[in-house]
């Protein structure tokens, strides 16, 4: 690495300025994108004594953080307020502020297009916004899940073209896949952090940064390996969830309870890992990320058949649930058209307020398309927010006895733990349970249909 003044002096191959400021807890870490990944990451750095500067194009987020408020359920407001008071957390919508940072971490969405191809527009726009303010000696890390080669082939040229600097010589570039498990109670800093650098010195710089905040940092040989690691993690879950979803449909046809089968199989102390079926896949990762690798594989004339089959099965699950609901109503002399359906839970998983890619949205759309009158209750999602792929305008209804008794069917799409499912069964005429949420309910089992 060529020397470029004090910022580019090296000690053991690592930038002395960055390494020294991280070690002294004087470094400033910019985090671009203050959503479900970026905000916990910024708090993690702040909690370890580093200053975190959050940047988000939505001005409401910096305003909320400045006031010590949280807009994400599992991120406590007191943690935000404490970090702000200590001067360890601040936020802005001005990308120019990143020039004062020692490291910039990108945590922006990577969705799919309507054609199910990668949409890197958030990454490219962020790179273009960062580049004019990039200076020598800075570290840039991409954490957004993406296809192998994105950091080098897409982000690197944008940063170099816009800054006039060269990655690996004038500034450091790395990839470190985000690993968050909202609602689990697991602290971000305890989750091992995989890191891959563009060059060995880039890797050393990234290891210095993350090593100051995470209990364990796992270096890999390249940004591509780090990018593929994240995809494998989510593909593993997608394929296994598809497997149990397919078994759920088969067990239903054969008159068996798939959850009983899974519970029995789980008693094996080796060679088996339980996965749970559901109404489809949700969240920003598992329904989307596998298709990033599928898209990239086609460039190498390779068909990722397992990934694509898993996607087909999981995408079809809402249709299966609607069919089971229609059959359950029919058995009671009712039609789906005109039926009053109360959907319990609209978040993509238990005890979170995250609705990204939630299968409950598709369930509601399918039910409404077939003439059902649908309302929903979710203690964490009071209103369906505007999102890219739906136009629902709904508000959560109170879970009263009247609401339960007035419904022809209650469809459990998300099994939030604070819901009293014994009461739900007692007050309802029919409960369609896609999550086995009613497994502990003793009375009224005849009302429960598993789907």
Automatic annotation (TrEMBL):
Encoding gene per record: wbpA
Domain of life: Bacteria
Entries under Pfam families matching the protein: UDPG_MGDP_dh (PF00984), UDPG_MGDP_dh_C (PF03720), UDPG_MGDP_dh_N (PF03721)
Ranges where the UDP-glucose/GDP-mannose dehydrogenase C-terminal domain occurs: 342-440
NCBIfam families registered for this protein in UniProt: NDP-sugDHase
Name assigned to this protein: UDP-N-acetyl-D-glucosamine 6-dehydrogenase
UniProt-listed SMART domains: UDPG_MGDP_dh_C
Keyword list, A-Z: NAD, Oxidoreductase
InterPro entries found in the cross-reference section: 6-PGluconate_DH-like_C_sf, NAD(P)-bd_dom_sf, UDP-Glc/GDP-Man, UDP-Glc/GDP-Man_DH_C, UDP-Glc/GDP-Man_DH_C_sf, UDP-Glc/GDP-Man_DH_dimer, UDP-Glc/GDP-Man_DH_N, UDP_ManNAc/GlcNAc_DH
Family membership noted in the UniProt record: Belongs to the UDP-glucose/GDP-mannose dehydrogenase family.
């Amino acid at each position: 690495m060529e020397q470029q003044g004090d910022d580019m002096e090296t000690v053991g191959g690592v930038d002395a300025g960055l390494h020294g400021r991280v070690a002294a807890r004087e470094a400033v870490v910019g985090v671009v994108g203050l959503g479900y990944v970026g905000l916990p990451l910024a708090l993690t750095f702040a909690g370890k004594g580093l200053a975190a500067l959050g940047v988000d194009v939505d001005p409401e987020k910096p305003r909320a953080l400045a006031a010590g408020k949280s807009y994400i359920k599992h991120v406590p407001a007191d943690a935000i307020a404490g970090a702000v008071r200590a001067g360890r957390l601040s936020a802005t919508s001005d990308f120019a502020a990143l020039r004062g940072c020692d490291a910039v971490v990108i945590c922006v969405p990577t969705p799919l297009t309507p054609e199910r191809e990668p949409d890197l527009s958030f990454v490219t726009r962020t790179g273009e916004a960062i580049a004019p303010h990039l200076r020598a000696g800075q570290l840039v890390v991409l954490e957004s899940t993406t296809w192998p080669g994105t950091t080098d082939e897409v982000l690197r040229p944008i940063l170099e073209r816009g800054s006039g600097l060269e990655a690996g010589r004038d500034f450091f570039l790395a990839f470190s896949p985000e690993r968050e498990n909202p609602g689990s109670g697991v602290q971000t800093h305890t989750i091992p952090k995989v890191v891959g650098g563009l060059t060995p010195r880039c890797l050393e710089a990234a290891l210095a940064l993350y090593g100051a905040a995470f209990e364990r940092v796992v270096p890999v040989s390249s940004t591509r390996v780090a990018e593929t690691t994240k995809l494998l993690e989510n593909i593993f879950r997608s394929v296994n969830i598809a497997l149990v979803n397919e078994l759920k449909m088969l067990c239903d046809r054969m008159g068996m309870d798939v959850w009983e089968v899974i519970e029995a199989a789980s008693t094996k102390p080796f060679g088996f890992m339980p996965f749970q079926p559901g109404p489809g896949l949700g969240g920003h990762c598992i329904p989307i990320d596998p298709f990033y690798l599928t898209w990239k594989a086609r460039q190498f004339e390779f068909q990722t058949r397992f990934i694509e089959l898993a996607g087909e099965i999981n995408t079809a699950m809402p249709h299966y649930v609607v069919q089971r609901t229609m059959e359950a109503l029919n058995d009671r002399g009712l039609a789906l058209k005109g039926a009053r359906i109360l959907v319990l839970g609209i978040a993509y998983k238990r005890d979170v307020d995250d609705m990204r890619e939630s299968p409950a949205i598709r369930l509601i759309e399918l039910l409404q398309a077939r003439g059902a009158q649908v309302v929903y209750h979710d203690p964490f999602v009071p209103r369906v927010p505007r999102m890219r792929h739906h136009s629902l305008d709904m508000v959560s209804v109170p879970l009263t006895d009247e609401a339960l008794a007035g419904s022809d069917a209650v469809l459990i799409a998300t099994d939030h733990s604070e819901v009293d499912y014994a009461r739900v069964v007692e007050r309802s005429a029919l409960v369609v349970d896609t999550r086995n949420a009613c497994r502990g309910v003793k009375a009224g089992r005849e009302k429960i249909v598993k789907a």
